Amino acid sequence: MNLNINFKKGNLKKSYTNLVLFVDEKFGSSHLKKYISSSDFAYITDLLKASDKSKKMLIFEVSAKKKIALVSIKKNIKTSEIENLGADFFGRINYGKNTQYTVYPDSLPNNQKNFIGHFLHGLKLKSYEFKKYKTKKDSRIITINVDGSKNKPLAKDVLKFKALEEGTFFARDLVSEPGNVLHPDEYAKRLKSLKKYNLKVNIYDEKKLKKLGMNALLGVGQGSIRGSYLVTLEWKGAKNNSSPLAFIGKGVCFDTGGYSLKPAKFMEDMTYDMAGSAAVVGLMKNLALRKAKINAVGVVGLVENMVSGNAQRPGDIVKSYSGKTIEILNTDAEGRLVLADAITFTEKKFKPKFMIDLATLTGAIIVSLGSEYAGLFSNNEILSKQLIEAGERVDEKLWRMPLHKNFDKLINSKNADMQNINYVGGAGSTTAAQFLQRFILNKTPWAHLDIAGMAFSKYGGALNSGGATGYGVRLLNKLIEDFYE
Are 296 and 244 in contact (CB under 8 A)? Predict the structure, then answer.
C-alpha cells in the first residue's frame, strides 16, 4: 500500500470525489453549504436527522462514487485526540485499488492550532504496515488531498511531524524484523548507517567491551554465535557544550531465556525484546532529522540470549562495569544485566543531565498495568512528573511505581553483591528497577520505563494497526520539546 498526501488549492465544489469535512460536536452542518453542492448538502442534512450524533465520525455514501465523512470536533480538543481522529478515519476507509479523499481544512468550526497537522500525523502513524517479507505486494494507492486556503500546517511543522513519523517507523521496523535477520551484528551495522544524519556513532565490540570490563552485558550474549555490542549515538544540537540528555535501551535481539529456558509457546514474540533499544534509536533519528536544539546521547546494548555449550549458567557470578558483582540465579533475567553496564557507562562517560532507560524488562509489569500504561520507576520527582505529563499529551501513558530501600533485601546475595532475581516472590518489576538503581553511582536523575506491555500489540491500538508500536519515541520527543528545548 502506498499513501500519498498532497497539499493544494482548488475549486472544491467542482472537483471533489470522496470528501472529509469537519463539524462541531453536535454535528452542526449549516456552514458546510459553502463547500459542497446544494444537492449533497440537502442529502446529508436529511441523513443527519436520523444519525447517532454521539459518534465522533459519520461517513455518508452520497453516490456509488462519492462519500462524505463528517468528523466531529469538540471544544478544547487535545492534540492526542486529534491524532486519534486521524487514525480512526484511516481505519474506517474501505480501500479499493486507487482511493482518493479530499480533506478540507477550511471547514473547521474553530481555529484549532495545527489541527490538520495532528490529524494527518495520526492518519500516517495508523497507516504503517510491515510487509517486507510478503511475496505478493500490495499495489493499492491511497491519496489524501488537503485542499483549501486555511488552517494548513506550516512547513516547519510538517518537517517536525515527518521526522517523528520516520523515527517511529524506524523503531517499528527494527522491532518487526525476525531474529534471523536482525541479530546483534546486523543491528550494529544498521546503526552505523545513521551517521548520514550527522549522528556520531561509536560501536564497542566484544574486544572493547572485555577491555572495559562489561562482563554483565557480555555474559548475556556469550552463548550466541553472534557478537555483543554497546553502541552510542550522539546528537549535538545545542550551541553550548551543556550536559546531554541520555537515553538507554535494552537490545536483546532474541531471548530464549538461556538455560532458564522460556516455554516454546509465544517464544517467537521474543524478537521484540529489543524494543527499548529501538525506541532510543528511533528517538535519536528523529532528533537528528528535526535538528533538535539540545545535546542528547542514545546508548544501546545489543545481545542475543541463546543456549549453547558456552552460555551463561544459573549460579555464575560476574563482575559488572561498575565493579559490583552479580550472582546469576536466572538467565532469563538478562535485560537488567545489559542495562546495568550500560547505565554505569553512560553516567561515567557522558555525565548526563538525566538518564532514562527503556526496556521490555518484566512480565510482572503486564500483570500490573496490562497494555494501557508503561511502568515508571524513578529517583527524581521532577523528571517523573515531566514524563507523566509528556505521556498524557501524546497518549503514551506512564504509571509511577514504587522504589524503596526495603526491596533491596530481596536482591541481596549471599555469594555476591547482589543477585539478578528475587526468588522470594512478588514485586518482580520493582525489584528489577531496584537492581538497576544500584548501578547509578553519582546520584544522576534517572527513570526506568518498563515497556513490556506497550512495545508490541497483537490486536492494534489507536495509532497502530497491530505489531510493533514504536512506544517511547513520541513520548520522549514530547518530553524534550516541552521541558528541555
Answer: yes
pLDDT at 66: 86
Residues 66, 162, 262, 400: which is the catalytic one? 262
Out of 3.40.50.1100, 3.30.413.10, 3.40.220.10, 1.10.3720.10, which CATH number does the structure's domain 2-152 have? 3.40.220.10
Residue 355: pLDDT band by 50, 70, 90 thresholds?
very high
Please count the helices (runs of H) and the strands (runs of E) in the chain. Answer: 14, 19
Q: Which cell numbers in the block locate residue 194?
A: 545513521
**Residue 16 has what pLDDT?**
66
Q: How far is it, in rounded angstroms, from Cα 17 to Cα 352?
A: 54
Helices of type H across 155-236: 155-176, 184-192, 206-212, 215-221
In degrees rounded to 5, what are phi and psi of residue 99? -120, 135
CATH architecture for the domain at 160-483 = 3-Layer(aba) Sandwich (3.40)
Grid cell digits, residue 457: 500489540
Q: Which of 152, 226, 290, 336 is catalytic?
A: 336
Whether residue 262 lies in the annotated active site? yes
Collapsing DSSP to helix, strand or coil, 145 comes out as: strand
Known active-site residue 226: no
Q: How many CB atoms lie within 10 A of CB 59?
A: 16
For the record, the C-alpha cell of 231 comes out as: 553502541
Q: Which of 134-138, 143-147, 268-272 has the highest mean pLDDT?
A: 268-272
Rounded Cα distance, 33 and 19, in Å: 14
98 CB-side CA count, 13 A: 1
φ/ψ (deg, to 5) at 10: -140, -170
